[in-house]
Write a structure and sequence with these properties.
0% strand; 467 residues; 22 helices; mainly alpha
């Protein structure tokens, strides 16, 4: 078993201890012990401080267990074993410092409160997602209502909801970090190279920081995509379930069904449909209460595209076109036609890439994985970022979904095109956030460069076997 596979297995142990630490933080928060002295008038600040202490203990304990396995570890072993814990500590510290309710989260909570009150969560708010995420957080709220009297806490259960949401964000961030290392291993990177590459991508990453700062849900979506990528080869049904769960939080991961259908991955498609069916069945009380889903569909069909694309840092093609037409003083009616042309061009480009990848002929000894898995991976990665090129919204924090594509591009083209790969990485992840036309759209340019670098023809040419 490779070291990265061991890291993946050990994450299960870490997960169990992590959620014990989450509950322990709440318990310590409820006690009036001399060794726990609350110092802030803000409820969340003390609670997250205790959470940080409990999770730090978990990280230290699991690190001790892992290092204990090596009596005389080499420098390489120390890096491979210790780096994930260092990265975990860094993200723990960042999350605690950024655990303030953002404007985005307040829109979430407004929707949660509306559901509790029996109102429509899609009216007068900016809650944009299917009902699943909101339903889960309403369930967390009801758990908090029961837990707080038990712990003799007189505080609002909505504090507990925000706490669980933030703890979940950190957990899924660390889960995606672990899955990314597993993905790097699958595409042929050795343990040390894969870990260093993945760690660098996560640490030097503005979209990751923005997701944490805005209390956004993007890590759930990224985990869904990575889960599908990692599981497809050996556990196709679970890969489909992973895509389904992500699609129930945001619709974007459902785009993965297109290459799965094209490749006739019936088990994965069955898992996707089963995942959707099971969740929606229980969520709607066996289809007896479709109120929230009807409200969501009505909202989705009348999505406020104009407001979503008005700022430069929304780096969608729709926003770029709208801003450009405004500067050119062109009539607004031109926008619809141009956006349709762009969407059709992107879809046509994807179709060409799909068929080129299907026709690739590369000797097995030149491949980092078998050709069938290589094609599956390339197809899924293309469609994992499709939303950034055709959806009305592509805010900077959405770009965390480009992490797997970046790992793929750097692994395949990092040696022959290092400068292009480095530029793409900087534009997508290291570029700061600003509203300056047209430079705010450089992030989208970086994504397009990643897609160009991973073009099937370029990869085939690089390996020296043009068809």
């Amino acid at each position: 078993m490779s070291t990265l596979s061991q890291v993946s297995n050990k994450f299960i142990r870490f997960s169990f201890l992590y959620w014990i630490a989450v509950l322990a933080g709440v318990f310590l928060w409820s006690r009036e012990w001399e060794v726990v002295r609350l110092a802030s008038t803000k409820q969340e600040e003390d609670l997250f401080g205790l959470f940080a202490f409990c999770v730090f203990c978990v990280i230290a304990f699991t690190a001790y267990l892992d290092f204990k396995e090596h009596t005389a570890p080499s420098i390489r072993q120390m890096i491979v074993t210790g780096l994930p814990f260092l990265v975990s500590l860094i993200f723990l510290s960042i999350l605690v410092e950024l655990s303030r309710r953002s404007w985005d989260y307040l829109q979430y909570e407004t929707a949660f409160r509306d559901i509790v009150a029996g109102n429509n969560p899609y009216l007068s708010t900016r809650y944009l997602y299917p009902p699943f995420f909101a339903d889960v957080m309403v369930f967390v709220y009801r758990v908090g209502l029961r837990l707080f009297p038990f712990l003799e806490l007189g505080k609002s259960a909505w504090v507990f909801v925000f706490y669980i949401h933030q703890c979940s964000l950190l957990f899924f961030l660390l889960l995606t970090y672990s899955l990314s290392m597993q993905f790097a291993s699958q595409i042929g990177l050795d343990d040390l190279t894969g870990m260093l590459l993945v760690s660098a991508i996560y640490l030097f990453n503005v979209p990751v920081l923005r997701t944490l700062s805005y209390n956004q849900v993007n890590f759930y979506v990224l985990a869904s995509i990575l889960g599908a990528l990692v599981a497809l080869r050996k556990f196709p049904f679970l890969a489909g379930v992973s895509a389904a769960l992500g699609g129930l939080i945001k619709l974007y991961p459902l785009a993965l069904s297109v290459p799965l259908l094209g490749r006739k991955k019936w088990r994965a498609l069955t898992g996707l449909l089963a995942g959707l069916a099971v969740v929606v069945t229980f969520e709607t009380d066996f289809f007896r209460d479709l109120t929230l889903w009807n409200q969501f569909i009505h909202f989705f069909l009348s999505f406020p595209v104009e407001q979503e694309s008005s700022l430069f840092r929304n780096t969608s093609p729709l926003s770029l076109l709208r801003s450009s037409l405004k500067f050119l003083d062109a009539p607004s009616w031109v926008l619809t036609g141009l956006m349709l042309i762009v969407a059709l061009f992107v879809l046509a480009w994807y179709a060409v890439r799909y068929f080129q990848r299907e026709k690739m002929e590369i000797p097995a000894e030149k491949m980092p994985m078998d050709l069938d898995s290589f094609r599956d991976t390339g197809h899924l990665l293309d469609f994992s970022v499709l939303s950034l090129l055709i959806a009305p919204s592509a805010w900077e924090h959405h770009y965390v979904v480009a992490i797997p594509l970046t790992i793929w591009a750097l692994a395949l083209r990092g040696k022959d095109s290092p400068w292009q790969a480095a530029i793409a990485f900087v534009l997508v992840f290291a570029l700061p956030t600003f509203n300056v036309y047209p430079f705010s759209y450089l992030r989208m340019a970086g994504l397009i460069l990643l897609l160009i670098l991973t073009s099937p023809k370029k990869i085939e040419s690089y390996l020296g076997f043009e068809s």
